[in-house]
Amino acid sequence: MKATLVLVTLWGMLSCLSLAEVGAAESGHPAKITVNGKSYAWPKAPVVVICLDGGDPEYFRGAFAKGLLPNIRGIMAQGYATVAEGVLPSFTNPNNMSIVTGTPPAIHGISGNYFLNPVTGKEVMMNEPELLRVDSILAAFSQQGAKVVVITAKDKLRKMLSYHVNGGIKFSSEKADKCTREEHGLADCLAYVGRPLPGVYSADLSLFVLDAGIKILAQEKPDLMYLSLTDYVQHKYAPGSREANAFYEALDTDIGALSRAGALVAITADHGMNDKSTADGSPKVIYLQDVLDAKFGKGKTKVILPITDPYVVHHGALGSFATVFFREQVSGNDVLDVIKALKGVELALDRNDAVKRFDLPGDRIGDLIVVSDQGTVIGAKKENHDLTQLKGMRLRSHGGIADQKVPFILSSPLTPEYAAIAGSRTLRNFDIFDFALNGVK
User: Fold this and answer.
1) Please, which pLDDT band fits residue 17 given cuts at 50, 70 and 90?
2) 184-211: per-residue pLDDT in tens?
3) CATH of the domain at 375
4) CB–CB of 148/46 below 8 Å?
5) 367 DSSP assignment
6) What angle, 0 to 180 degrees and rounded to 10, lies between the N-to-C axes of helices 288-296 and 332-340?
7) What helix, strand, coil percent values describe the chain, rounded to 5?
8) Which pLDDT value is given to residue 390?
9) What's the predicted TM-score (pTM) here?
10) Domain that holds residue 362
11) What is the DSSP pairing of strand 148-152 with strand 224-228?
């Protein structure tokens, strides 16, 4: 009688569980994990999320118009595709960290590629993982036993993206010749991938990431893979150009290989990209520090350009977003009035309004933010920007509201629930893990 009662009780308990939960219990990992207030289902097949740096949707349209990219077109037809928005400022670091944490900058704390640290008073790169205020989805899954892979083109992102990731493989193509098994999970990345070290300013820097992903997917069978590319091509070449199309054709080949290998492929971007030049080809720049110094006096304000990173050949440290710190007593309203009157400025807000509108970390953005329009960039002092490295090419850059448009592509169709969500609001690039893990059939 007791045995019968035990069996009945056990069956009753099991019947309350879904088949997925029973399978998860048998496999030793949870059916779902919660990260930063969101629940994510354990992947049923390898999930590969690609951050196509600078991947403005216009590049897809330009290639599609010439009948190119059959693999991506096939994925979009059989799965799901829309245009989403990244976070502001539309720069690499804040958007990559939003994607992998599933949160806006107000939560994860990364406000740019570069900032003035209010604690130390020093201007520094925002590359150090200690600046992160939450863990990533990648870290949380790895801590529950998932096999996680993080491969970036730019080494500046590697430490932040792989922060608290247990085990796995994590390296950058920029420094693939420095891989060690202890730090990166692979002893010799160049030999493993079968490619030479790519140049920092090259399309190959991104293609190395994807080729590494294909090899690792086949040999290591990871659960989650995050592949973050570089925007070298998009900074140099317009959508539909021969050079851009050639790069996207190479991306298409690799993305097709990932999909055919059985992975759920999810594609988004950190930001878009726009031409920021005048009709004669010269950069269209507001040198904001020069303007404020002339109006209010030197030393009263400090302009910080959060696009600044080690790769200034891309953009000359000129983007469409800036922050302003007050070094001495000055009227914030007077400064705002001067900035708003400048031709090419789309928006200027004080700290409180910026935090509310764009979900920014208030302690890391200064007293004001300034956003220029689609065709304009913001500099500090003219004498501090070396534009000779553009070598006569038109300046293409990002950072503003007009540069937030990004692709949002999944290789499987959405469930009815997630199709309804997608139809009810503009998706964000940091929704991509939620949709890839929870929202596909």
Assistant:
1) very low
2) 999 999 999 999 999 999 999 999 999 9
3) 3.30.1360.110
4) no
5) S
6) 130
7) 40, 20, 40
8) 75
9) 0.92
10) 285-397
11) parallel
